[in-house]
Write a structure and sequence with these properties.
The structure holds two protein chains of two kinds. By secondary structure, chain A is α+β, with helices and mostly antiparallel strands. Chain A has helices at residues 59-67, 109-119, 124-137, 153-165, 183-200, 211-217, 235-240, 245-250; strands spanning 15-26, 33-44, 48-52, 74-79, 82-83, 94-97, 171-175, 203-208, 220-225, 228-233, 255-265, 268-273, 276-281, 291-296, 302-304, 312-324, 327-334, 339-345, 357-362, 367-370. Chain A contains eight helices and 20 strands. Chain B has one domain (64-285): MetI-like (MetI-like fold). Chain B has twelve helices and two strands; from the N terminus they run αββααααααααααα. The chains are: A alpha+beta, B mainly alpha. The interface between A and B is medium-sized, with 26 and 19 residues. Chain A: It is an enzyme of class 7 (translocase). Chain A: Its EC number is 7.6.2.11.
């Protein structure tokens, strides 16, 4: 750990941020809309926490409220156990890496990185040493006298990181920081930032609409939609056990099939879905007649011929096939017109012809039954 | 070759109207003034064209130096007053007025559709011995004797401020309006108080606008004529009314023309030097 940006060791159970019943309203009267609605969340110290959702879901508004650029309409915000609701941004021990980097164009790289220390009146010698160390930690020491405009996007990104981290914040906020980078550089920076977070033990709060980025980098993810948190959990939990239709559809590719319970025998359900009868073990409190949604990953489906026991089957006519390298994605048009997508590894069998009857099957354990 | 030549001809044809008016209304008058400045004064107040440096020789006598200094001083003080008043206005309109910004800018500009002399006369009515302000103050019992305002230096500065406020506010407003507001959030985020944000981010980034405003105020203020005469009583002689006096009162057209040429040279010199400094500043910033 470099001496420039040390921090106290991560107390994993200590709360870095507590969001208590946070609401953010825009507009007034009948026009009132909530960018963020009844948000209750605790982010632990040392955690890499991500807000994930489509644009306009309230994730950036949430981040801006933590930073202090916007105040919640109601609710309280605790930072390191202290209520900071109403405290202006410059008095919060939180720093932000902006989507646009927001480097000061009239200052050189060294002055940009030293800005936070300089406004706090830190001695010039100390600023110089810490700026050097901070630039060293992002491999940008050589650019200390350059102007931000002379740097590439990736380099500006590193400067923005150094400028935030030099202040030793208790929480670092990152607002879609890789949005402007090309894919290769993006992967590189993802690795680097994740590694930096592990090394420093600082709480990182990350905002992205890129589910892959969220899954690869985060300790925990909050999936948001329409200002409401849909699910909070680790990447594996979010991907494998989506809590509702939105999360299931947003994270990765997912077949979502409307279904209805037709019979129940203990924990054994019989469902009617897209014209197929499915026997399915489940512990959800559902009764015959209830509607639900079946969520199946395309990679969990495979073609079967004849009768194989113990699996759930869907029969229909083959639709379009899309070749994507190692795999091919097939569409199966079921009796009621529902399209079921299956991602099948190439080379296992000859490519079936479009229009031919086929049957896809998966293990019951690969199916998520969702009620909303 | 032919295509290129034809392109040049088209360009020339398109430029012809503006080129002609510039030559007729700008270049030729300046040449006439220059010609006058080298002419000889004849007995009846006319000019005998020729080439003599007599006017310039007379001009560089010590009595004219204070007039040049007066003009420089008035222009400098006016510029400073305009900046002190104009910057906060530009700042407010650009960063604080929100959706009222357009309206405020319009209000600032609308008076300038009225003729300059009419507006200055309005100030004479306002500031006069029996003017609106004195009557109001007397009527309200704040003062017992009318305050002498017309004919004082502050009255001239008020007039200068009024005349040059839009040319101060507009370039500064343009610079502040183009300021990336996220930079202010970044400064806030990094712990800068609002005052620190202003001096370290907002103000340095608005400097190009301030530099333009200085040029737009200082250079015309050097040659200003009506304001010091109408509001200052014409007591301290500056270049503007010196030229008028030489032409109309003393009927010394060559000397008047020489003063005009010197004013032109000084102003152009200031502009050239200023642009050079500005460019090197801009280069240092990027």
């Amino acid at each position: 750990m470099p001496p420039d940006i040390t921090t106290e060791p991560a107390g994993v159970s200590r709360a870095a941020i507590e969001l208590i019943d946070i609401r953010k309203a825009f507009g007034t009267g009948a026009e009132t809309a909530y960018a963020v609605d009844r948000l209750n969340l605790t982010i632990k110290a040392g955690e890499f926490f991500t807000f994930l959702g489509p644009s306009g879901c309230g994730k950036t508004t949430t981040l801006r409220m933590i930073a202090g650029f916007e105040e919640p309409t109601s609710g309280r915000l605790l930072l390191d156990g202290r209520d900071v609701t109403g405290v202006p941004a410059h008095q919060r021990n939180v720093n932000t890496v902006f989507q646009s980097y927001a480097l000061f164009p009239h200052l050189n790289v060294g002055e940009n990185v030293g800005f936070g220390l300089s406004v706090k009146g830190v001695a010039k010698d100390e600023i110089r040493d810490r700026v050097k160390a901070a630039l060293d930690s992002v491999h940008m020491t050589h650019a200390i006298d350059r102007k931000p405009s002379a740097l590439s996007g990736g380099q500006q990104q590193r400067i923005a990181l150094a400028r935030a981290l030099i202040n030793r914040p208790s929480v670092l906020l990152l607002d879609e920081p890789f949005g402007a980078l090309d894919l290769k550089l993006r992967r590189e920076m993802q690795m680097e930032v994740k590694e930096m977070q592990r090394r420093l033990g600082i709480t990182f709060i990350f905002v992205t609409h890129d589910q892959e980025e969220a899954l690869t980098m985060s300790d925990r993810i909050a999936v948001m939609n329409n200002g409401v948190v849909q699910q909070v959990g680790g990447p594996v939990e979010i991907y494998e056990r989506p809590a509702n239709r939105f999360t299931a559809g947003f994270i990765g590719d997912m077949n979502l099939i409307e279904a209805r319970i037709t019979a129940r025998n203990g924990d054994q359900f019989t469902l009617e879905a897209a014209g197929s009868r499915i026997d399915f073990p489940c512990t959800l409190p559902l009764q015959p007649g209830d509607a639900c949604i079946l969520a199946i990953r395309p990679e969990a489906l495979h073609f079967v011929e004849g009768e194989a026991g113990g699996s759930v089957r869907f029969s229909g006519a083959l639709g379009e096939a899309v070749y994507i390298g190692t795999d091919t994605v097939y569409a199966l048009v079921l009796a009621d017109g529902t399209r079921l997508h299956a991602r099948v590894r190439n080379g296992d069998r000859p490519m079936p012809q479009a229009g031919a009857p086929a049957t896809l099957a998966c293990a019951p354990s690969a199916i998520r039954l969702l009620t909303q | 070759m032919i295509a290129a030549r034809r392109g040049n001809l088209v360009t020339l044809a398109l430029l012809a109207p503006s080129l002609l008016s510039a030559i007729l209304l700008l270049v030729i008058p300046i040449l006439i003034v220059i010609a006058f400045s080298f002419a000889e004064q004849d007995t009846y107040g006319g000019a005998k064209f020729g080439f003599t440096l007599a006017s310039y020789r007379e001009l560089f006598q010590a009595i004219y130096l204070p007039i040049f200094l007066n003009s420089l001083q008035l222009a400098a003080v006016s510029t400073i007053v305009c900046l002190l008043v104009g910057y906060p206005i530009a700042y407010f309109i650009a960063l604080r007025a929100g959706r009222h910004a357009g309206l405020l800018l319009a209000l600032l500009l609308i008076p300038f559709w009225i003729d300059f002399i009419v507006r200055m006369s309005a100030w004479m009515v306002l500031l006069g011995r029996n003017g609106t302000i004195n009557s109001a103050l007397l009527g309200l019992g704040f003062i017992e004797q009318p305050i002498r305002m017309i004919g004082t230096y502050p009255a001239v500065l008020v007039g200068m401020l009024y005349a040059f406020l839009p040319t101060t506010v507009l370039p500064i407003h343009a610079a502040l309006n183009g300021l990336d507001k996220r930079l202010l959030e970044a400064a806030d985020d990094l712990g800068a108080t609002p005052l620190q944000s202003f001096w370290r981010v907002t103000f340095p980034l608005s400097l190009p606008g301030v530099m333009a405003a200085i040029l737009f105020v200082f250079v015309p203020a050097m040659g200003v004529y009506a304001i010091p005469v109408l509001l200052g009583g014409g007591k301290s002689i500056i270049l503007g009314n010196l030229i008028v006096q030489l032409f109309l009162d003393f009927r010394n057209m060559p000397l008047g023309a020489a003063v005009s040429v010197v004013l032109l040279v000084i102003s152009s010199g200031i502009i050239v030097c200023y642009m050079r400094v500005l460019r090197s500043v801009e280069e240092a910033r990027t």
